[in-house]
Amino acid sequence: MIEVHSLTRRYGKIAAVSDVSFHIGKNEIVGLLGHNGAGKTTIMRMLSGYLEPSSGTINIGGVDLGSNAHRVQRELGYLPESLPIYPDMMVADYLHYAATLKGIDAAQIYPAVRQAIIATDLGKRALDRVATLSRGQRQRVGVAQAILGRPRLLILDEPTNGLDPHQTEHMRQLIQRLARQATVILSTHIMQEVDAICDRVLVLRQGKLALDRRLESLRQSRTMLLRTDTATQVLTAYLRRMPQVATLQQDADGENRSRYTLTLHENADIDTAANNVAQCVVKAGAKLYQLQPVLQGLEAVFHEVSTDDS
Q1: Structural domains of the chain, ranges and CATH numbers in brackets
Q2: Judging by beta carbons within 10 Å of its beta carbon (0-12, 13-18, 19+), is residue 91 exposed, middle or buried?
């Protein structure tokens, strides 16, 4: 769906984005993460065609954005962090206006506006002026304009900003429904949002791509936890000789209990390692109480990847 190659954007001598490349498949929900100033907004603006790259290419749905921006934008929905909506317009009129700007056929504007209002639960406020809406309701108006015309690509910058917990859950469900027919790029500072709905994460650091991983694999660390009865030198020796084990730490775990923390080599297969660990326990004549991988939290991974080494 999206092919980005060597994307760079400079402001004078400063590179806001530097040599970033990635591929996003059809109907994926991808979280775009990074500290303020990491380059997230710049990348989203370039993907939307609002900002031209200094160098590099963007291909969306088989179409080069640089030479066919208008064609791509007709199938794109974009929610910027600060959406310029007109406070004196009624919600329905504003969405009608936005649909016209998007180039939606006149005969399809009314059903497109109606569908967007229903999807964002704005039916009771459709005839109210934008100025009378709460912050969360205005955010839903922004999402409504982004999904007009069923775009194939949605770029959402902080879509749950200002929403209460109930509205946030509604927004998550909406994004997951939209992903059945669209690719979604979601930028947010809320790790729970990414954990709840994203398939992959792209983490930016100082304008460069620091991490591109699927969440499922990201959560799996190279660490395993083993709990047995009293440790024996035989079991410890067996575990240390395992080819998958890089480091081993053994600690007391209450009376007549031991806990082993095994860190695996980078290329080790965790299932093979688990099988070998279990066999070591049996051979040593020990009792196996617990054997499981240690899962990583997304916040910890983000902090590790996005923190400047300097």
Answers
A1: 1-75+151-206 (3.40.50.300), 83-147 (no CATH), 219-301 (3.30.70.260)
A2: buried
